[in-house]
Each structure stands twice: as C-alpha cells, then as structure tokens.
Amino acid sequence: MSNPIRLKKGLNLPIAGAALCEVTARVAPDLVAVKPTDFRGLVPRLLVKEGDSVKAGTPLFADKKYTTMVFCSPVSGTVDAVIRGEKRKLLEVRIKSDGKNESVKVDIPKVSTLDKKGMTELLLQCGLWPCIKQRPFGTIADPEAEPKAIFISGMNTAPLGADYEFTLKNDVEAIQAGIDALNRLTSGGVHLSMNAQSFAGSEFHKLTNVTFHEFAGPHPAGNVGVQINHISPINKGEVVWTVSLPLVAVIGRFIREGVYDTRRIIAVAGPAAVNPSYVEVMAGVGMKQLAPYFSDGDIRVISGNVLTGETVGREGFLGFYDDLVSVLKEGDYYEMFGWIKPLRSKKFSVSFAYPAFLRRKKYNMDTNENGGERPFLMNDVYGKMLPMDIYPLYLFKACLAGDLDKMEQLGIYEVIEEDVALCEYVCPSKIEIQNIIRQGIDLMMKEM
Amino acid sequence: MAKNFFDKIRPTFSKGGKLAWLHSSFDAFETFFFVPNRVTRKGCTHVKDCIDLKRLLIIVVIALVPSLLFGIWNLGYQHSRVFGLDWGFWQMVWYGFVKIIPLYLVSYIVGLGIEFASAQMKGHEVSEGYLVSGFIIPLIVPVDVPWWMLALAVAFAVIIGKEVFGGTGMNIWNPALLARAFLFFSYPSKMSGDAIWVGGLSKALAGGTPWKGGEVVDAISGATPLSHASLDGLSAAGTSAWNLFLGNVPGAVGETSVIAILIGALLLMSTGVASWKIMCSSVLGALFVGWLGNIGGVTDIPCWEMLLMGGFAFGTVFMATDPVTSAQTETGKWIYGFLIGALCITVRLFNPGYPEGMMLAILLMNTFAPLIDHYVVNANIQRRLKRAKTV
Fold first, then answer.
1. Mind spelling out the 3-state secondary structure of chain A?
2. What is the pLDDT of residues B241-262, one digit of tens each?
3. Full domain range(s) for residue A386
4. ipTM score of the complex?
C-alpha cells in the first residue's frame, strides 16, 4: 500500500442540505429518458420510433461514427416520445415503463476467457460501453484505443456528493466483477483511488485485481482527473479510461447476471431539498417522481452536483452518469449594499475579505452570481483550487485565444470541466471558466 | 426605497428605452447599491462565492485610509512647521483636507469620467479598477501640483495606460504610477526639487512671499530627507528613523508614514487581497542591496533605514502588489518583488540626482513581469515535455 497522496489545494464547499445516510424511497420507474446530450461529442442515430415497445437493454440509438456502440433503454415499456431540439438535434428518448421490468437477457461467456476485443464487443452490444470515459477530453472511450490504464475514483468529494461507502455497500461483489471485466480491456491495470481517512474500514478494502491509491484532501481530490494527475499524468498521445464507481457496479451486475440493470442509489440533496436523503432509482428517472423531495417556490433542480451539474428542472430527467440530484433556490433577488457590508452572515466566501472567524458550518447557497462579470483581475485565486501541476490562468487564456499549441503545452489533456469548476466558483470576476475549458476542448477535438 | 427608484427608472435605461445608450452607467450605479439579481448560467457552476471585485477593491481602499488620514494631518503639520505657524491639531487637519479634496475631485471626475465613457462606448459594465487607482493618485503626487496637470496625468494614465490595452485587467503598467511618471517626465520642474513636497511652499518661493522664522534653510533641506540622506545618513538630513517611521516628514501625502502603511499592509495580507509574497520579497530585495551598499561603502545608511525612506513602503504595499500588473505566477511573484526592492535601492544608491527609485523600479518590473512569468510557465511546459519523453 502506497503512502496517501495528500492534497492541500481545493475546497469542500460548505453547502447545507447534505443527504442523510438513509434510503427513504425506492422509486419504481414511470417515465424515464435517455439523453444523447449526456455524452460529449456524440452524434446519435435513432434506432426506435415512438410507440415501439422496448425491454431494459433494447438499443434506442447508436453512435453514428461507431455504429456498434449502442445506448439502451433502462426499463421495459414503450417509446413515449422522441424529443428533438434545434436543427432536429436529438435531445431525449422518453420511455414509458410498463412496470414489468423485462430485460434483454444476454449470455455471458466466462470473463477470464475473453480478450480485449471480446470484452469490448460484449460491453458495446449491451449498451454499457458508454460507462467508460476517456481522457483526454472526457468523451466516451474509443473502443479501438489502447488505454494506458483504467482509473476509478472511489471517493466522492463533490459538494453534497453521494457517499459511495453507503450507496454501494451491497454492491462490492458486483464491483469486483466489474473490475475483473475492466481488467480485460487494458494491460495497464485498474486503479482505484480511495479516501485515506476511511480506507482502512472500507468494504472496498476486499477488492482484488486492482491497484489501490489513497488520497486525502478537499474537493477536487475525489475527481478522477486530479487523481490521474498524481498517479500517472497523461502525456501527449496517451489515453486513459475512467469509470465512475457506481457504473463499475452496473457493469459488474451485467457480467454476473446478463441483464442491463441500471438501478442506483442516488442522493437528493441541497438547501432547497425537503428531507435530503438517498433514493433508489433507475437511470434516467424523471424528476417528477422525486417531487416530494423538492421544496415549493422558485427552485433549480440539477442533475449532478452544484458545480458541474446540468439544470434539468422539475420536469427533467437524471443524467446517465449522475448519482446526485441537487436542489437550490434560484437567487434572482437584489441585495442592498451586499458587497460593502462588513459581514454577510448568510453568504459564504472563501476569501478573507469577509471575516473568516464568523464563518458558519453550512450555508443555504443559492444561484445568485453575487456580482457582475469582469475581466481577469485576481490571478492567484485559481491556483489554490486546482491541485495539479498546471498554471490554470495561462491554460484559460490559451483556450480563450484558441491557441492549440499553447493549450497542449499547458496541459489541456489533463483536465476537463469538472476539474476547474472550483476555480469558477471562487472567481471574483465571475468568469465562466468551465465554458472556456469546454470551448477549448471542443476546439481541440475538432482540430485533431 | 432606493430599490423602487431603480426599478422605476430601469426601463428607461434598458434595451429599447429612451436612455438605453446610458445602460452601462445605469448599471454601474445600480450595482453600487445592490448586488444584482443575475443567476448562474448554463454550463457554469450553479453556486458562486459571494466575493466580487467591488469587495476586493474596497478592501484596498480601506487599507489606504490610514495613510490618507495621516497624510492629511501631515500636510498641515509640514506647512505650519515650514511657515512657522502655531497651529493646533484641527487647523492642521483642516489645511490638509482643503488641500487634498480638489486632488480627489480631479482624480475621480477625470478618471471615472473616462472609464464610464469608454465602458459606454464598448457596451460593457463599468469596471471598478479605477476606484483604487483614483484613490492612490492624490496620495503619490506633490500636493501643490496644478489641477490641470493632474487632470492631464490622470487622462494619460487611464487612456494610454489602460483603455488602449482593453481596460481594467489588461493594462501593462500600474495606472497610478503611470500618472506620477507622466507628471515627472512632462513637468520635471514641478516634480522635483525640495520645495514641492510641502503644501504652499513652492508657491511661496515663486511669489517671494516671506515667511516667519530663521529656519528656512533647515526647513527646506528637511523637505526631502531622502535626497540628502541617500548618501550622508539621516541625521545630516535633519531627521531620524523614528520620524520616518512615524511619517511626520515632508513627502507625498500617502507615502510618509510607514506605520500607517503597515496598518494597510496588515489588512491586505490578512484578507489575502494583496500578495504577501511580493511584499516580503520586495523588502528582502531592498535589504539585500541596502546591505551590499552599506558594506561596500557606497552609503552610510544601514539597510533597514532604507525601508523607511521615501516611497518604498507605499510602493511595496499598494502598487507593487497590483494583481494586474505584477507577476501572475507564485514563483514569479518572489522574483518580481525581490527585483523591485533591489532596483529601488540601487537607484537610490547610484543616482543621487533622482533619489526616489520606487516609481521607476515598479514600472520597470511591471514591464518585465510577463517575461518572468514566461520563464516560470515555460518551466512547467518543459516539465510536461520531459515527463512525456521519459515514459
């Protein structure tokens, strides 16, 4: 066991409304959606039409470029609606569950007999390949690439993030099966990063065929990108794959039982959440079914965490990779002399420009921007939020300038949006840093 | 009440309203009173820290207040000393107050006027950067500077120093120092010599107005202890280290009192608004060169006294640390600060004709800060390339 890697930079956001460690509901699926927009750079080709009946595991759409990569229905029922946006862009495929929960049954060969090609084909055809993401750029893994290794983060440091030790405590065997399967895909091994504080007592301690790493420190220490940067940084030309731990369990369940089973325990949390706690749902669950957990009034329902998640609204659906629904109050109010008040007891700032000794433990954060957008001015705040050997400000500016060479030299391969989300949170100039990185990555992908 | 007022007039300034072209100005005033109701957008973090630039810059202004207050008193004190007046405390303060207010009016009216106009033209929000620059400028120019000269200097600093580069955040040089440099090089006769640092003295000299007392020569030689002390030591200049620390010596309004500046420095460092690295390394650089000069026989002044003299302390705390024009990398900040301190003292030691090196040291290092950063960032790039090769 290696020594824990201690990270100092970053911030654990003191946001109120953390989920209590208790599963308060098991939601039977009603209307669910699969959203091609959850997958970066995906151009989908629709395989079903409205009214078709599907089972859990029936392909709904496929990747236009890599046609054997399919995306499946998580439930059995009928295709209720195909939602398209501008230029007929496919946004959602909605499935109305019939409540029978029938699955496409797949015969699973013995994992140890499969080579990389065999395992790849198996995961592609069952619709679980999209669980595997690729760095650089955070796209779905290219099935033909040779990854240096596969990395899994076993710690969730994101604000209000689901506690894996709780949500996956009954899934250790499935995770083991998933890890065994992933091991067939790479010669570099599967790396699992754990929280140094709780690792000794963790259920995941028992896992085998995996290289453990221990991390300690505030968010974003739990981001797999940060962990990779400290374990084996990505160089130009290299590819690594990442899978989130809940999805390893989904892969494992498929390997063990041969069915596409995307059940997961998610957290519903946040300052505007009623009774914040855990809920067992299917992938793509509709927010309507979680309505009892949302308070009334003008709220924002986010699939994912408050730093990187996507606003889906009360009518929306859970994202493919997400295991958290965050609920915030909208902050469209004026605050008189807010910035000049000596104290601002209801708002959190990481800056000592607001007296730190009066800080409370948790804050009811909302979506107010707390200021207007300005040019980059304070240059030292970003570095304190990114525990990597990267000069964030210079990387942002290279992205803004669209300078591909500079972006490459300054480490664009090593980050995706979630890694710089905290930089955006603390930015006093209110600059949309994640969008800057997103545009930089999009430009890189287009030019490569 | 104020809310109702803004709500009422907002349509006039919004798109389609009669005064829509004044939207930037309306926005500037409204956001002064109210943190706006804007919410986070798509693809961004949904929550944001409650810090904003207004807050950070107001901290700098607050940190400058002790220097200003002391400077106001000191203006009156120096005036009464030189002219042999028997003034009480409040008389001195009143004199300083009357002297400084027009400078602030000129600085803010001209500076903010240009900022508003330029934001208006670009359709941007008005940036708060000038609040600090405008507060600093009256503190570092001679108090008797003609108002039109100051207005010209401010206009130069804001237009040529800032707006042509794209406004706040894009400038290469510290705008406040640029204003001072403009005055210094454009009107050298008004900006150097002994008399300019005491309120009313240059006018008195020019007009031949007699003043009381036989200590005229002393008074004048005391006017800029720095120029005399540079080579001969403080007592030759008729002052002491304690006076310099306290600040009851002639000089630019804000820069004389090291103790007031230190209060500001404490605030800036404890809030993290200004970089402690730059301040520390600048002091180290000054001490180092001062020590070299002392043991090398260039000067008799102990190196620590150098820290108390002239504009060094003020420049180190309030101008070298300007986040826009200083080095942007943490390693770079150490180098940048050290070189500022070192250069400042070097100028003092070897150029008796121009004893105040701080302005030029900072402007020069502002110029070279991107170069320092370039090498620091390049080291990071090289690390990354090397890593790629070794694998």
1. CCCCEECCCCCCCCECCCCCCCEEEECCCCEEEECHHHCCCCCEEECCCCCCEECECCEEEEECCCCCCEEECCCCEEEEEEEECHHHCEEEEEEEECCCCCECCCCCCCHHHCCHHHHHHHHHHHCCHHHCEEECCCEECCCCCCCCCEEEECCCCCCCCCCHHHHCCCCHHHHHHHHHHHHCCCCCCEEEEEECCCCCCCHHHHCCCCEEEEEECCCCCCCHHHHHHHHCCCCCCCCEEEEEHHHHHHHHHHHHHCCCCCCEEEEEECCCECCCEEEEECCCEEHHHHHHHECCCCEEEEEECCCCCEECCCCCECCCCCCEEEEEECCCCCEECCCCCCCCCCCCCCCCCCCHHHCCCCECCECECCCCCCCCCCCCCCHHHCCCCCCHHHHHHHHHHCCHHHHHHHCHHHCCHHHHHHHHHHCCCCCCHHHHHHHHHHHHHHHC
2. 788 888 888 888 888 899 999 9
3. 369-447
4. 0.88
